Amino acid sequence: MSLEQILEGIPRGSADEALAREVNFETLPAHIAVIMDGNGRWAAQRHLPRVEGHRAGIESVRAVVETSARLGIRVLTLYAFSVENWKRPAAEVGMLMTLLKRYLRLELDTLNRNNIRFAVIGRTDELAPDVLDELAAGQEATAQNTGMLFNIALNYGGRAEIVDAARRAIEAGVAPAELDERRFSEFLYTAGQPDPDLLIRTSGEMRVSNFLLWQIAYAEIWVTDTLWPDFRRRHLLEAVLAYQKRDRRYGGIKPAAALSR
Asked: What span, in angstroms and rounded, lies between the C-alpha atoms of 122 and 124?
């Protein structure tokens, strides 16, 4: 992608334009993962039902997906619904699934126009048939796209993923002596995808919430107090710029020559 593409649709002279011009397109994160948090608090601050926070959050999803694609991010993963979220009131869960289905129907044209491929990670076999049908339709309709891969983590849990991967490895007949980190990663939901370079969490909470536990081993973490329904292009650009200022060592030691500078 290029600066020209990300500038399309950004008002000239705006703060967003200034941020976009600072981005180094040579050092973009290959994979951005986002914990979308704060919908309930956003609604509570406005004395609205929780569902209105989820509804408002769809605009943030739209902004982040399109901006990421225009930037040239290879993979974007959004944490939509965890295995623990089933503990929420049935009415709230039902509305979340309804909003998900509606989003997919309304955004398919946008995904295809931006060459985005849609995928789902998680224990999808436990979802309702109507939700599975909508997810399958979205994946099929975008399967030929070659741009950004957009993962929605649905009925997802990091520990559950590791357990499922171990079971798959056993079912595949992999001998313990053959199982190393590279081989094990082939049984994860994200097999074949780069691990996240950047993990974004909204609402100021300082935890990873059972999200991509294996994959975020060396991810840079960026936390913002902004609640998810208020998260927009500007915040994503700020996160990318913060990432580009980090010194990524992957557990290594910075050379003495560099330390002396």
From this structure: 6
Q: Is the dihedral of CA 39, 41, 44, 45 positive or negative?
A: negative
Q: Confirm whether 133 is a catalytic residue.
A: no
Residue in 16, 24, 39, 85 annotated catalytic: 85
Residue 258 — very low, low, confident or very high, per pLDDT cuts 50/70/90? very low
Structure-token pair, residue 11: 């008002």
Class of CATH domain 33-159+190-245: alpha beta
Predicted confidence (pLDDT) per residue in 150-196, tens digit: 999 999 999 999 999 999 999 999 999 999 999 999 999 999 999 99
Of residues 16, 37, 195, 197, which has the active-site annotation? 37
Q: What separation in angstroms does the CA of 162 have from each of 70, 126, 158, 182, 189?
A: 32, 17, 6, 14, 9
85 catalytic, yes or no? yes
Please state, in angstroms and rounded to a whole number, the distance separating the CA atoms of residues 81 and 35.
10
Distance CA 117, CA 152 (A): 11
Q: What's the CA gap between 32 and 26, in Å, rounded?
A: 16
Confidence (pTM)? 0.94
DSSP string over 27-73: S--SEEEEE---HHHHHHHTT--HHHHHHHHHHHHHHHHHHHHHHT-
Residue 195: both structure tokens together: 């691990």
Buried b (16+ CB within 10 A) or exposed e, 210-227: bbbebbbeebbbbbbebb
